[in-house]
Amino acid sequence: RSEDVTEHEIGGEAFDCVFVDGLHDQQSAFRDLSRYAAYARRGGLVAGHDYSLEFPGVVEAVHSLLPKGCTLHVGPDSVFWWLSGCADERSDEHAPLE
Question: What is the reported pTM?
Answer without folding.
Answer: 0.81
